[in-house]
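INSTRUCTION: Work out how this chain folds

Token vocabulary: learned, describes local backbone geometry

RECORD BEGINS BELOW THIS LINE
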Amino acid sequence: MLSSRKAQVGFLLSAVFLLLFLRQLDGLHVGEVLASADYRWLVAAVPVYFLAVWFRTLRWQALLSSMQSIPQAPLFRQVVMGYMANNLLPARTGELVRAYLAGRSFDLPRAPILSTIAIERISDGLTLLAFMALAALFSPLPEWISGVLLVMGAVFSGASVALALVIKWQRGGARVWLFVGRRLPAPIRGPLARVGAGLIDGVSVVRKPRVLGVAACHAILCWGWEAMVFYLTGLALGIEVPLVAYVLAMCTANLATALPSSQAGIGPFGFFCAETMILYGLSPAEAGAFALLVHAVLIILVVVTGLACLARDNLTFGGLVSDATGRVRSVEVS
């Protein structure tokens, strides 16, 4: 029921932002901009994008290292398949997919894996906010971007504080969870107690300064390379704006996808990306074409590669999603 409501809210917000995005587009002029693009720059963006995904893989490998030493190649495929599912399904279902894949492949408990993914999301938010703060040193931020920085800064700072409290009082948190669990109906008491204990155990990876430092460095690198994808897309369209514009467009577009949304963040991503580029002198048609093209690059590359990884591992998309959503939601029941 909760996932269904989250999906419904996501579809609604996506529809609102998609309508706002489409309202400012002139379809004919956008088509002209896209038709005149030099798509050789997008070919150059392909290895750059996968380098960003590789650093995401290294970050996750570091976070999982407290449970087990994980080889990079299969983990890379699982990251790609998870991102593919995020682009094709609502409500961040891809996170359940890669948690299921890692648990199945390396015989790991699912709840701690989900904790490492939650840590990734906090790391992403803090890194993007740091990029925005750094960009502010080179270019004054418009009022609405400063507002995004403040609001999202409060959200991710709150999440970081909550994480720190769980780490500091890990045993106490487990006792509180068990205390609450004893007052729940018997059929769900045991499973929820075990899930809670697993999630609390999972965040303990950041007790290790080396792991935290490695994960932070990889977060900076993966988002730095993704900013290069935005830059190369701008070159493909012949756009002349300062590098800070691409960095801010990447940050605002990706932070917007932290909102509940439909598949691939369609709607919020395009709206905030285009609005940011308009601030740097682009016409609505140019900004809209840029947002459409960069989002298409990010979606198509990971979906095609994810489907290839599925075929390589003899998996079907429907079967994988069914197993992941069914088994991860019943973590440790047996």
Remarks:
- Residues 2-328 form one domain.
- The chain is about 80% helix and 0% strand.
- The chain has one domain: 2-328.
